[in-house]
User: Fold this.
Amino acid sequence: MLCSRVIPCLDIDNGRVVKGVKFANMRDAGDPVEQATRYEREGADELVMLDVSATIGGRETALDTVRAVRRVLSIPMCVGGGVRTPEHAIALLRAGADKVGVNSAALENPSILTELASRVGAQCVVLSIDAARLAEGNGWQVVSRAGTHQTGVDAIAWVARAESMGVGEILLTSFDQDGTRTGYDTQLLREVRRVTTLPIIASGGADNAQHMIDALRAGADAVLAASIFHDNETTPDAIKEELAASGIEVRA
Assistant:
């Protein structure tokens, strides 16, 4: 059995870490290099860095920020936000990313996933999915462009299709839970786990270790959080101690 991972997330806007609720009302949360250094010291297994305004602004994730963070970081790092082409993804990998997250571009051109997997390996390709619960409560649709665009794409079916196209991992964010600190959408996690064998990173809603335990038991392989780490309420090491005490295997 693979050990469960605890992953801080750095949402980046113009070179600064930011945090909001449902991708809006962003507040400053620090310098990405300083945050990355601290999180590795405090036991993070990996780091996810997402440029939250790149797609809306029509620009690419800043390579200089990726390089700056990589200089201080030895743990794996996934970078996403505004990835439009295989060439841009490869540039991010060369700048220091270990994995690249693709979201809006894959919805517009799914073949980018297959091309990326063939060129850099499936282990480097992460499909980032922002899933919003349908108004009638029956299922989830994928939203894109930082949650501003309803695609009408069924989130569960999109996961199954992406696995067949060579994706190596799923970063699954509940749009409804994002920033609310009321827990992950465990029903969404269970439904996604039902259709894929890929590793799933649960995102959106974490407030404490129990929320993470619930997500991992619902089918996640890793748990991602931002606010609780940015605001110095806890550390990855402290979370992992609680996970281990509940019987969940974690990395030392």
Q: What stands out?
A: The chain has a mean pLDDT of 90. The chain is about 35% helix and 25% strand. The chain has one domain: 5-245. Residues 32-41 form the longest helix (10 residues).
